[in-house]
């Protein structure tokens, strides 16, 4: 199996982690609840995981990268 190549830069990672923290806070303070709350929680988990891994499957699907390219 081919290893996943990073496609997220530091700015993108920082934005995702910041949004994840905000979404976690909204969920755990009951600012959002019910179905919307669980969608919020799912998005927060997804943002956290993709930030730590450095890979976004949606970016790969559309051929988008925010990480800098290595120059030879």
TrEMBL record:
Name this protein carries in UniProt: Inner membrane protein YgaP-like transmembrane domain-containing protein
Bilayer-crossing regions: 43-62
Pfam families the UniProt entry points to: YgaP-like_TM
Segments forming domain Inner membrane protein YgaP-like transmembrane: 5-70
InterPro entries: YgaP-like_TM
Superkingdom of origin organism: Bacteria
Keywords for this protein: Membrane, Transmembrane, Transmembrane helix
